[in-house]
Amino acid sequence: MKLKDFPKEIRQYIIPGHKGKLVYRCLSCGSEYDIEKLLYTCPDCGQVLLIYDLNFDRLKEIPGKTWQRIFDYRKMLTIPALKGIYIYHEFIGPTIPLETVVYLGEGHTPVIEANSFLQEKAGVRFYFKNDGQNPSASFKDRGMASALSYIHFLVQKEYISDVLAICASTGDTSASAALYASFLQPHVKSAVILPHKKVTPQQLSQPLGSGAKVFEIPGVFDDCMKIVEVMSDSYNVALLNSKNAWRILGQESYSYEIAQDFEYDMNNKVVVVPIGNAGNITAVMSGFLKFYETGVIKDLPKIIGVQSKHANPVYRYYLEPDLSKRKFIPVTVKPSVAQAAMIGNPVSMPRVIHIVDLYNSMAGKQKIFFMEVTEQAIMDWELLANRNGHIACTHGGESLAGLVAAQKLGLIEINDTAVLDSTAHTLKFSGFQEMYFENKFSAEFKISPNTDLVNSPVFIHPKDLEKVPAPGKPLKGDDFHRFVNRISEEIAKELNLKKVRKE
Question: Rounded to two decimals, what is the model's pTM?
Fold first, then answer.
């Protein structure tokens, strides 16, 4: 749609014109720093940072209803920079010029309602938001589109050059970082650090295919994270984990899309997200708060963060009802099928604590809740979801298990509608499905297959069928007809089919 064809009253807003003034702000000491330099922690006190727009209040001068129309009409544009997460440019990166935006097809992932059978089993109306349909097949692309657009901006301005982007990962972050960095070759190169044998083969293949330098080390994600933190402090590298506040900005788009998908009506809505390094739940809360402050939405939805019992430091922190007694204690993680969430010391925990308090305060009551689920529940609900038309990953199973647990605790009301985050494509974690079907989980997972959910191929070769086709050796004539008929009969027997009588 051409600009001249948009309604006159919003035409001036369709191409972003807001002049944001972004700064890094420390959550501990409140110090602010210019964004023209890569920063991950406060130079004064070492705490994590968030990015704030000092001109944000100007966005409130545009009525919320007008913002809704702006975003809805922008969907008709053919400008690549405004087709992805930067359709919400004023809220995500108002200092990033459109010509430096890196767009690879991320964002605007589908929201799919569960069928009646699955909703009845869960006890609540719900949808999956399939973030596995992003370019690298995970939600991480939202943050990488933001972080790499920012790096592209710095390169174009000649503030930096010869960038080596680096990250620690359990799989999805490395795949996304390598993909987006490869788009900016030769100005940006990438390296990823992974825990040895803790990443699925499908995930490992992605950064390798994108040309990243891949290093595997002993230990778990938390060990990898410490290494990249030391490297970002000691060497000229760009850190791409969610410690990078630009990642948080990009992931806020998840909230904006949900609001838009439900026509900006967040009344009686519940958003369920798995928690790993805690960047995603930080972004989801922050995004809804921004839309609420500017009147784009009138209600703040409930948000439920979910963790496995094998990696549950955030859940444990909020078990203590007395705010004055809460103390964050990292945990030693155990193996989990929710591999990306297997993090015992989340980098974004200070952000979570800060924004949870703000969110509940602005809502006027508790709207943020945390749930703990078993590995068994994660696998069972993932497989059941996928048997009913979804492409949920193990983290999507974790979200569904968390929703069911919250419903049983009475946190979900009868009129609530939930949106569940399936963070990646199920094919990335197909190995866990195979282990479930073949009952090959080690004892530490505490997972036993439910026979109703187990599935495996059936080999059909009747003993009385001597001649069968082979590659390069097809059957012909009577031999081929006998092969087709016997195989058809055996399959029909397996399926309990009855022959149709021909009139």
Answer: 0.95
